[in-house]
Design brief:
Chain lengths: 608, 608
């Protein structure tokens, strides 16, 4: 991409172009400027660009020379490039280059990713890898240093850990713009020393601390969280959550991801209250490849906000100047104004946010939904690709669950019950019948085997349990996308297929696989950290479609079963979870036994 | 004052107070919160404070312990402390401590002064002196490094000069928050190397560059200026100037000073356009002691904005959060939100901005228009007080103007004609009659002698000329407040009184004096740099009243004659000016002769 010039280095050049002594490199003629500074639309406005920055907004005829590229924009809106203030690139299963190729044509010019998925696998090296890889794209990528890796240290084994010293080290780096979502809000509120050390490290370097406050409590807890210097939060699921945050001076990051589609509700914080909207922003958080390919990225979210009643100019402010002000980067970004980076979209229908042209740094980066620049395909280094380490190949024996001894018959067994399209689970208890000293799955009651195998350091540790709700009639599905430690998770109705699917992933460095009757039905290799593909987006999408078909073939009728599955090990969510260390009661935050002891049977949970 | 805590050091403490584990130091109970984040007024809101910062906004009952100071605010508005984003403390003739004592009771809690008057006398040492003196007050003072000292290097001799290296040196200092008003906009536009080096120094340290763009041209010139990284400007005198600046992403600093009362006109940029007002701020620029004492400071300006039709909450945003965002200090300042400094006003009538209580850093700093903290009176060091150096005492002979040789009679003479309440002058030509080889003043045509004596380095250089319009019948007035070089300026009808007034100032280290018939009528000593008093504000005001009376006694009917006089040497303003180096044609930016040569007579100027 074009060289990125710091403003300090080009003030005289920009002045010369604006004043007419030198000519612009690019002039966009006769646009309808969406002026996010004043909230106006200004007809018949030219934009002159030099050194990748806006030199002049107004009448640019005097800046146009024989070498100036002139782009006619008559009838089109000129809009600042869209910015996504909170997301995890890993959710797209694309590497950053492929992600950039996918989102730029949709008008995204800057993102603030928190690479905490890869950090759970590769630690600091993973964060640095993602930031470095991003530098090969024209997308402006402002990386946030993950704050909570692993998410729940005592309950699982991730591939790596990040602590206050690592945070302090990364805060010294220019391309690390702040601290990633501080999910440990209990730690913030309770004054946990390591948590506050991380806040300290970011604040000391005057960088931005981003939030994740998912409680409905907006009084003392939210105040404590905000008072700790946390500047934004994407976890509002009710309108009143977002409103409370904005009132406390936090940026509300209204989320519209593939699975968490909160905008419909949360944007009412803005549309139903006559408030100053400068603290409202829109973010994607987690977007899957099919959503990106079929609906788009921030353009889709802007469109959704407009559909929900937000004024189009205000919606655009929420993905431009408001985001820039959140990160205090508004000297360089967020508006089409003199001195700012020439990240400019031409849009034909504002409410539909249909992006026709995308300029980044004054260079045409996409046109008519196609990338107009080439992004070199990477040859990724071995250390990011060799992350799936099992102690030994899995066998059917590994998935046998020994009945309790002395064995009651039936054995009262704790079962995780999933809830479609929700992040929570129910902790259930079922009477399970032992056979030959082992407790098998029970397709008749939709109870499958579930296993989480440590896959980072080949320790051989493995958690085993049961899960209800996937609808599997047989076979098995495995995935190394298993939040947040991203161990190897396998669900299935028999040990042979489970071992087969798991081993297939171990062989290809991770990914997702489905198996039945000793055959692999579908395989999506994610060789980068077991999380990201090396393929192009359409290829990934095609493989995802095949996997979805395989799920259905196995009997599952859920919409996004991999997503639901991916959260089963995440011990910060209620009520029952399984990690490589075992079954966790996340209501009481403690390990629990798979088989209920007589004394406790039925004490806390529903009995089927 | 209370210790100022960086947020990084107190996150855990604030969280503990908000969460209820520790108690607040101060709780303001049951206020009507002016929430500048969302633009709402929130009834029955408590504010809990610890470590000088807001810990919680909402219901603070759980934060109130036996040692908590509780302030009932029922019926009163809680408003963030007022911030003045552009001003020169020197205009008040008060030292910074006295200035703080005066403005804090009016609700001002933070100022961004550009000490360029004292910098013209004392250079860097003067800037450091002002910043250090400010540290003795509870007022938050964010000093801007003057950018244009002297204002017009080729035409005058100031006491000091500030260049790019000095700027770079000061940008390293934590209490220097940016670059002072860049008055040399022609230099910005033309790409002047030193000017852009100063911009570079500020931008390289990520500090704010403040502006002064006084041309009515809002096209290529203003774009060039904005593109150079200049973030704000207080020089709009027409509504369209301010609107153009906001549209280009510059903060419009709408000015209401003692003499430059631009608000009535300029605020129409906001009231007559339905725009987002986040880029609108209110500033004082230059305020005289009588205005501060009789009308107030930012409270007065907020009141004026409301009178002109600005919504009170929006007006308050213009002196709080908008200013904080302009300087990108909104993590610490500008709103009453968790984590921010507890700079809080209690106001009984919002539209009238009548400030009843002022808290700075969580400490009651003023109540019922009286300071509630003590600010130690300074003993100022010698180097700031010994700045008035004449080569020798002045005598009547010094003010004799020799007639041209060969002497035409009458001699066609260039005369500066002042315009009441305006900063400009007219370049006039009058036929003046010589007597005994000298040209005397002419009271009958209201033409007085004018002299500017270099007073910094005792060089003995002196400019002489004539000025019309003060209405003096006799006597003389002298001042060392003479922009921007602040040499010793004397206007009078006879040399004896001129010498007397000038010598009186030289003896007391500068100030203002009026004399007649060999007697001093009034004297306002300004011993600090010849600009600032050591007295308390009421004493200064009293002396100013006496000086005003003396002006009237001498025949002058102008409203603020000292102000008009103070600008006579400022060679950036049209049309004719006098400095210690001589008469300057500021239309063509060149020195000119006092007496018109036959060939040029009447070529450019009006002849009386």
């Amino acid at each position: 991409m074009n060289k990125i010039h710091a403003l300090k280095d080009v003030t005289a050049k920009l002045a010369a172009v604006a004043a007419g002594r030198e000519k612009a490199e690019l002039v966009i003629r006769d646009a309808r400027l969406v002026n996010v500074n004043t909230g106006e639309i200004m007809e018949h406005t030219d934009i002159a660009v030099a050194c990748g920055r806006v030199a002049l907004v107004g009448d640019a005829s005097h800046t146009t020379g024989k070498d100036t590229k002139v782009v006619g924009a008559a009838g089109m809106y000129a809009v600042p490039g869209f910015m996504d203030g909170h997301l995890h690139v890993e959710s797209s299963m694309m590497n950053v280059r492929e992600y950039a190729k996918t989102v730029i044509p949709h008008g995204t010019t800057a993102i603030f990713p928190d690479p905490h998925e890869i950090a759970n696998v590769l630690g600091k090296k993973g964060v640095r890898f993602m930031a470095d890889d991003a530098a090969a794209t024209p997308l402006r990528v402002f990386t946030l240093m993950p704050s909570c890796v692993p998410a729940v240290p005592a309950f699982e084994d991730a591939g790596a850990a990040i602590g206050p010293d690592d945070v302090a080290e990364f805060m010294e780096m220019d391309d690390i713009c702040g601290l990633g979502e501080m999910m440990n809000f209990p730690g913030v509120l309770s004054g946990d020393e390591n948590v506050h050390k991380e806040l300290y490290a970011a604040l000391a370097r005057d960088k931005t601390v981003t939030g994740h406050y998912s409680m409905p409590e907006t009084g003392r807890g939210l105040n404590a969280y905000a008072a700790s210097g946390i500047r934004c939060c994407h976890e509002s699921v009710r309108r009143e959550d977002a409103l409370a945050k904005m009132r406390l001076g936090m940026y509300a990051q209204i989320r519209e991801g593939s699975a968490w589609r909160d905008l419909h509700e949360v944007v009412k914080s803005v549309t139903e209250n006559k408030i100053d909207t400068r603290f409202a922003t829109l973010v994607s958080d987690d977007t899957h490849p099919d959503t990106l390919l079929s609906r788009g990225h921030m353009d889709h979210i802007v469109r959704r906000a407009v559909e929900e009643g937000v004024n189009p100019v205000a919606a655009i402010q929420m993905v431009t100047i408001n985001v820039a002000q959140c990160y205090r980067m508004d000297r360089d970004l967020g508006s089409i104004s003199p001195g700012k980076f020439a990240d400019i979209l031409l849009i034909s229908d504002l409410a539909k946010a249909d992006v026709r042209k995308v300029f980044i740094n004054g260079v045409l980066a996409a046109e008519d939904n196609k990338l107009a620049v080439s992004i070199e395909k990477a040859v990724y280094p071995g250390f990011v690709k060799n992350t799936c380490h099992l102690k030994k190949p899995l066998t059917a024996e590994d998935f046998k669950i020994a009945a309790p001894d002395p064995s009651p018959s039936p054995a009262k067994t704790r079962v995780i019950e999933i809830i479609e399209a929700r992040v929570g689970t129910y902790a259930r208890e079922f009477d399970m019948k032992a056979e030959n000293g082992f407790v098998p799955p029970d397709p008749s009651r939709d109870i499958a085997l579930l296993a989480v195998v440590e896959r980072h350091k080949a320790t051989g540790t493995m958690g085993r349990g049961f899960v209800k709700g996937f609808g599997l009639k047989g076979g098995a599905v495995a995935s190394t996308v298993a939040h947040d430690a991203h161990n190897l998770m396998i669900v299935g109705m028999n040990g042979t297929d489970m071992a087969l699917a798991g081993n297939a992933l171990a062989e290809c460095g991770g990914g997702m696989a489905a198996a039945r009757d000793g055959k692999i039905l579908a395989l999506l290799p994610l060789p980068i950290a077991g999380l990201l593909s090396e393929d192009e987006a359409p290829v990934i999408a095609e493989k995802v479609v095949k996997l979805d078909a395989a799920w259905k073939e196995l009997g599952c009728g859920l919409e996004s079963p991999f997503m639901t599955m991916a959260l089963l090990p995440l011990a910060v969510l209620p009520e029952l979870r399984l990690t490589n260390r075992g079954l966790i009661d996340t209501v009481n935050y403690r390990f629990t036994e798979l088989f209920v002891k007589a004394a406790e049977a039925g004490r806390t949970a529903f009995i089927s």
